[in-house]
Structures are given as structure tokens and as C-alpha cells.
Specification:
The protein is an alpha/beta fold. Helix content is 50%, strand content 10%. The strands form 3 sheets. The chain has a 6-stranded mixed β-sheet with strand order 5-7-8-9-6-10. The structure holds adenosine-5'-diphosphate, magnesium ion (MG) and zinc ion.
């Protein structure tokens, strides 16, 4: 801005000067002579003056005697109050009017306020620009793009996430030798997305990859892209990739990708939307345009993968996702060791005991715990951190965490362990069910206290009625185990019930799978049409009596699944309780560990009573 403005300023000055000069010239040509007031008075007394024009401040007039070249001679003087003039001439004082200001003075009078005003304006706008990062600096993201040439963080600083580290080693190998890596035609994924709850070490892990590979680390946070001006974010993305290409091999890290990559779609509130969309589109373009062999690897982190725009996750973009989950007990021991290295520790401290008490803590929570304990010990004036300091710190942090995430008490943990083993055992018993990968009682989020991961062995497009019934049985396995072992049921099954009911409803109303209602599609596809989170509302298109029948049929399906799950578990009750105790102790069990514990679980001895087939009436 400043250059253009300077030009304008000079033009203005020149114009003003020119106007004043012309006025002066014209006045001089008209032969107006500026004279002192006393001269005017004596000329008046001598009768030399022909006529005058009197204004508020000046007197202008013409002499009777014309000038040398025959022109009339004009004069001008200040107007002095008549009394003053009389008194002055009585006292024989020579007096005169203020000489009319010269060209320079007149210009100064004009220019000074203008210059002051302009100066103030420039100063203010300059300050505003600096505060905002610079309107003129739009598109140059250097202000917010952090580039670090060498990073001291290594994999030794990150613990408890061994699986994630293992997957990232490939990328490190590539970054160390981008040319040699591609020698055999292998290629690394373009974009790797680190997914996991906040505080589990995603940012730390990304930095450690750069540290291990010894390459520059360009990082930017998705939330910083939320800008005022349309186009700024897009320009920033372009700039980011441009800089990266110049630094290759290097890592680009986009933290909090969800802030930037939120799913596009019809949004009820527009505004700011276009900007985000532009930024996201630019990111997609850059992702498509860049070549991995150039040696630039893109890492991103998010704790809300479910809201990301699906386009971001397509093949050739962020096509590899790495789960960075809350650590299990051995993981917590390892993380505690990393952070306890930095403090003076009493050798008596039993780290395992601390780990046992901190189920559900993330890496960040554990780092915080160690820091709190060190503070407590310092306050105590002790030479080292004792077990008691750590225990006290746990109490403090748990009190703080309880609002945010759940930290389970002993009886809750037992209920969750029982529930999860129930799912797993049923899943291993029903024929054709997906194998169980992992069972855990480490709280995952707000909704799930524990979890059982069943990984589908193949992509499914069609599901038979038997498979749907099996799925419902597995979903109800959790509650069935609770009712069997604890002889009580808990709210922990709410999500399972919702899922099982949804399946049953679809079987009845969409897939025409129960005899009572026949093969009629009562409900269409209820997939959300207005974008994620907004359920499309559909009017009911069937009669009250059908609705009542349908509800009954849904209930019958769910009840049957529950009875079946309970039957399976009752038959293997000893195995169930043994496995639950083991899960309680270890917090996480893999599929293999589980299989070993349960022995090879035979398929159901009494097959489920098959639902009556749907009548095919011609
Ligand atoms: P995220 O990015 O997943 O929210 P961070 O990487 O910012 O989490 O972690 C915050 C801090 O917590 C780190 O600086 C580190 O001190 C500690 N931390 C988190 N996870 C781990 C871990 N797995 N090992 C060691 N320290 C960790
Ligand atoms: Mg982070
Ligand atoms: Zn469950």
C-alpha cells in the first residue's frame, strides 16, 4: 500500500503548489500592490485614492493616478479598526498591516494539517496490518507456518504407541533415502493421517518422524486456516506446498485437520463456508498434484476423523490412517518411564502400581501427572519424588478428568470387562461372524466405556437374514453377559441396543424379512441426505396397525437375539468369567490371547431357532 500512497501524496502536493502559484501570478499581473496601512492612510489624506472595496479583513482600491504604462494602479492593505488607526496616527506611531502571507507560508498553512492527517492515517493502518498479519502479506504464510530444520524429538520420546511407530518406520526409511526407496517400484503412501483422542501423542509422533529421519518439519495447524478473507487459506496451502518442494525431503504436518477438512455439503448457515471450501479444494488439488517421489511426505492429525470430508480420505490422498489410541497398561508404564527420566525419582517408586491406577489416561495426562508429582515433592522440600506424591497427583488429575472423560471405578471396571467379554465370546461362537481383533476396557470416548473390535474379513454388500440375526446376537452379548454374571444390567448397553434395534427395524420395514409384515418395503433408505448429522425426516407411509405389528416384530427379533446370546454364554460360563478376570487384569486382550483363554470355542451346540420363513404366496 505504501508505494501507491506516496505517489498520491506527491501528486496532491504538486497540485496544491501549482494552484497557489497560479493565483499569485494572476494577482501580480493584475498589478495589485500590497501596501502598509499607514501608507494607505496618507494616500487617502493626500486625495490620491479613487475608490475602495472594503471587506471584513482587507481594503482593496485603485489610485487616481494611473501607472507608467497607462494602466490603473491597484493596491490592497489590511483593514484596521478606525479608532485604532486614529489613535496610532495621533501618537505618531508608524504602523502597518500584517504583510500578506507569501507563497511558502500559504502552502504551509494548507499542507500541515493535510500532512498530519495522512501521517496519522498511515501510522494507524500500519499498526492494524501488523496486528492482523498484514493484508499485503496475504498469501505469504510465513507468519504462521513453522519450519524447523532439525528436530531433536525421536521415537525414544514417544512410548506406548508401538503399532503406530512400526507403521511410521516405513516413512522414515523413505525420507532418509527417497531415491533408493523407489528403486524397486515401491512407493510410500502420499498422506498419512494420525487418528486418536487428544493428548495421545499425535503431534509428538509426527515431530519424532522428522527427528528420526533428520528432515525439515513444516507444520501448520488446521485451525489457523480459518481466516477472514476468502482466498487466504487457499493461498496459504499453495505456499505451504511450494515451500515444502524447495525443502525436500521433508515433512508437511497439518495438525487438527478436522478444522480445515470438515465435510463440505449443504450447510444451513453459510458464510465462512466458501472460504473453508476453497481452502479444502486447494488442499485436495495440491494433494493430487504432488508427487511422492519428490520426497515430500504429508502427515496430518485429527481426533475427529468422522467429520472429515470423504474426499480427503480417498485413495491417493490421506489413504493411510494410523490409530494412536489411549495407552494400555504396558504402554502407560513405558510413557511414565519416559517422563520420569526427567525428574529426581525415589528408587522405591513402583511404576507399575501407578500405571495400574491410571486406566484411561492419555500420554498427555501422564506427562501432567509426573509434573504434578514433581511440583508436590518440590513444595514438600523433598530431595526426590516419592510414591505418595504420584498417588496424590493421580487423585488431583482424576478429579479434573472426571468431568472430561470417564475414569472407571472398580465395580464399573468389572461390569465393563464382563460386558466386553460377552460380546467377544458370542462373536466367537456364532458361525460366520467376523473374527475378534481386540477387546479392551480402556475408555475410548464419551460413549463407549470399553470396546470389542471385530474386523470384517471382506467387504460386504449383501447380508443374509442369518447374518443379520448373528450380528444382533453379538450386539446383545454384552448385556446378556451382564445379566448372567452380575445378575443385573447396566446403562452400558444403550449403544448396543440402539444398533440392534436399528438392524431389526430394517429387517422388518425395509428388507421384508419377517412373515408378519411380508415382503413390503415400508420405509425407504434413511441415509442422511442433508449432510452428516442431519437426519432426513420421512413421513410414515403405513397404517397404525402396520406400525403396531412392525413394532412387535422388531421386539420379537431383538428378544430372540438376546435369548440366544444368553444361551451361548450360559453354556460357557466358566470361560466367560475366567476371560473377564483376565481382561480386568490386562485391560486389553488380543484375539489370539482370547482364543487361547477360551479354548477353541465350538460353534453353538443348539442352533438358533430359525425365524419362520417368509411365505411366498403366489
Ligand atoms: P496430541 O497431538 O495427540 O493431542 P500431543 O502430541 O500434543 O498430543 O501430546 C502432548 C504431550 O503429552 C506431549 O508433548 C508429551 O509430553 C505427552 N505425550 C503424549 N503422548 C505421549 C506418548 N505416547 N509418549 C510420551 N509422551 C506423550
Ligand atoms: Mg496435537
Ligand atoms: Zn457393548
Amino acid at each position: 500500500m505504501s508505494r501507491e500512497l506516496h505517489f498520491n501524496l506527491w501528486y496532491a502536493l504538486i497540485a496544491i503548489a501549482a494552484v497557489l502559484a497560479i493565483q499569485d501570478y494572476l494577482a501580480a499581473r493584475a498589478g495589485v500592490e500590497t501596501i502598509p496601512y499607514s501608507q494607505f492612510e496618507s494616500a487617502l489624506k493626500a486625495g490620491e485614492i479613487a475608490d475602495v472595496t472594503v471587506s471584513d479583513t482587507r481594503i482593496e482600491g485603485t489610485y487616481k493616478k494611473p501607472g507608467a504604462n497607462g494602466q490603473s494602479r491597484r493596491f490592497t492593505t489590511v483593514r484596521v479598526s478606525p479608532d485604532l488607526a486614529k489613535n496610532l496616527s495621533d501618537a505618531k506611531v508608524t504602523f502597518s498591516g500584517e504583510p500578506a502571507p507569501g507563497l511558502f507560508e500559504r502552502m504551509l498553512g494548507w499542507l500541515l494539517p493535510v500532512a498530519l492527517f495522512l501521517g496519522l492515517w498511515m501510522y494507524l493502518s500500519q499498526r492494524m496490518l501488523q496486528g492482523r498479519g498484514g493484508v499485503m502479506a496475504i498469501g505469504k504464510s510465513k507468519a504462521k507456518l513453522f519450519m524447523e530444520k532439525s528436530i531433536a524429538t525421536t521415537f525414544d520420546d514417544v512410548a506406548g504407541v508401538d503399532e503406530a511407530k512400526e507403521e511410521l518406520r516405513e516413512i522414515i526409511a523413505f525420507l532418509k533415502d527417497p531415491k533408493g526407496y523407489g528403486r524397486l517400484g515401491a512407493h510410500v503412501p502420499k498422506g498419512v493421517l494420525l487418528v486418536g483422542p487428544p493428548g495421545t501423542g499425535k503431534t509428538l509422533l509426527a515431530r519424532a518422524v522428522a527427528g528420526e529421519a533428520g528432515v525439515p518439519f513444516l507444520s501448520i495447524s488446521g485451525s489457523e486456516f480459518v481466516e477472514l478473507f476468502v482466498g487466504v487459506g487457499a493461498a496459504r496451502v499453495r505456499d505451504l506446498f511450494e515451500q515444502a518442494r524447495g525443502q525436500a525431503p521433508c515433512i508437511i504436518f497439518i495438525d487438527e485437520l478436522d478444522a480445515l477438512g470438515r465435510a463440505r455439503g449443504i450447510s444451513p448457515v453459510s458464510g465462512g463456508q466458501d472460504e473453508k471450501e476453497q481452502t479444502l479444494n486447494q488442499l485436495l488439488t495440491e494433494l493430487d498434484g504432488f508427487d511422492v517421489s519428490s520426497g515430500v511426505v504429508l502427515l496430518a492429525a485429527t481426533n475427529r476423523p468422522e467429520i472429515l470430508d470423504p474426499a480427503l480420505l480417498r485413495a491417493g490422498r490421506f489413504d493411510r490412517q494410523i490409530l494412536v489410541d489411549r495407552p494400555d497398561k504396558p504402554g502407560r508404564i513405558a510413557i511414565l518411564k519416559v517422563h520420569l527420566r526427567k525428574v529426581q525419582l525415589d528408587p522405591q517408586v513402583a511404576i507399575e502400581e501407578i500405571a495400574a491406577l491410571t486406566t484411561g489416561f492419555t500420554g498427555a495426562d501422564l506427562a501432567n501427572l509426573v509434573n504434578e508429582a514433581a511440583l508436590l515433592a518440590t513444595r514438600r522440600g523433598a530431595p526426590a519424588v516419592r510414591q505418595q506424591d504420584l498417588n496424590d497427583a493421580i487423585e488431583r488429575i482424576v478429579a479434573g478428568l472426571e468431568k472430561k472423560t470417564r475414569v472407571l471405578g472398580a465395580s464399573e471396571r468389572r461390569a465393563v470387562a464382563c460386558h466386553e467379554i460377552g460380546h467377544a465370546l458370542v462373536a466367537m461362537s456364532v458361525p460366520g461372524s467376523d473374527p475378534v481383533q481386540k477387546v479392551s476396557i480402556i475408555p475410548r470416548g464419551i460413549a463407549a466405556l470399553g470396546y470389542t473390535i471385530q474386523r470384517p474379513t471382506e467387504d460386504r454388500f449383501l447380508m443374509s437374514r442369518t447374518e443379520l440375526a448373528n450380528k444382533m446376537t453379538v450386539l446383545l452379548g454384552g448385556r446378556a453377559a451382564e445379566s448372567l454374571v452380575l445378575e443385573d444390567i447396566s446403562t452400558g448397553a444403550a449403544d448396543d441396543l440402539a444398533k440392534a434395534t436399528a438392524i431389526a427395524r430394517s429387517m422388518v420395514l425395509r428388507y421384508g424379512m419377517v412373515a408378519e409384515l411380508g415382503q413390503v418395503s415400508y420405509e425407504g433408505d434413511t441415509a442422511p441426505m442433508l449432510g452428516p448429522g442431519i437426519e432426513s425426516w420421512q413421513p410414515r407411509r403405513y397404517s397404525e396397525s402396520t406400525a403396531a405389528l412392525g413394532d412387535q416384530a422388531v421386539r420379537a427379533l431383538v428378544d430372540a437375539a438376546f435369548t440366544r446370546a444368553r444361551g451361548i454364554l450360559a453354556a460357557r460360563r466358566v470361560a466367560l468369567e475366567r476371560a473377564a478376570a483376565e481382561l480386568l487384569r490386562k485391560e486389553t486382550l488380543t484375539g489370539a490371547e482370547l482364543a487361547a483363554l477360551l479354548g477353541s470355542v465350538p460353534a453353538e451346540t443348539t442352533p438358533a431357532p430359525a425365524p419362520p420363513p417368509v411365505e411366498h404366496t403366489p
